[in-house]
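Could you help me review a protein record that somebody else here produced? What it holds is a sequence and that sequence's fold in token form. I need someone to confirm that the token line plausibly describes how this chain folds. Take the sequence as given and treat only the tokens as open to question. This is what I was given:
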Amino acid sequence: MIEKLRQRDENDIFVYTYNEGVAAFNCEDYKIALSKFLEAKNLPAPKAKVLFNIALCYQNLNDMESAIKILEEYIEQKPFAYNALENLFFLYYDLSDYKNAVKYFIRCIKIHKEETMDSYINSKQFNANSEYALKFFNNILYTEDGKYLYMDLLKYLEKERVTLNQTVSMGMVIDMYKQYRDYTNDKEETEISISRCYAKMNNWDKAIYHAQKAVVVNPESYEANKQLGFVYYCCSQYDKSIDFYKKAIELAPNLDYKLHSNLAYAYEKARKLPEAVRQFEVLLDKFKNIPAFFEIKYHTEYVKSLIEQDK
């Protein structure tokens, strides 16, 4: 009974001291908050959460080394504490310690992949200095765990952050794809990705060149043939587009209704209207539950009417 009362008193003292620290922190008096949190930490019944708050105080007081030390102590007790791991990642990143930054970035990725990628790519650190971003990405690539995340991160970056007006950023992505290709010797997927980037920049000559390289690496690649068909279509080279769309469909006839649609439209653009109708009808027969079913059906009738007009 006496032991229980003693434990309760110790817990009450901790809570009171901890709350004083919280109140000071909320008033942005970080020195007072730090002293209260440190006092709470040294009480007989400390809670792990006080360590995280101590680290936040050190961060706000620009004592980053102390913040890192406390956060690493905290994650020894709470190894899956995402906020602490993310803070460690950014602290090491700001110190240009990319080896440790990568270590904590990967731990964050394993807990919340999309959230971690989004947090970094939208951070002031990423957007302020592309040179540092490249160094960080290089360190990811050259670690055993990070190598497997590198391509996913690049695709996320390409998809979420780079628009047609951000050609410098897209150029950075292309450079990183090339580095990945040269390091891993994964030529097929990276050439497709590079082609896709150049297409987003409307640089069609290079988009075609890299898609061609992907097809040379693996002539039986569905994705490579589809990409080359796409870039030829965008350049109004419809006969070439047809050849590679057909090849992609041969490789995976039931995978993607949009590919069948693209082939049909390529026939139409090439003024091969009977072939376009046949391809539209194949599409409608194979994929009856697609969202655009009736739209495509009506368009098929329109193409048939064009054939009648040409007679």
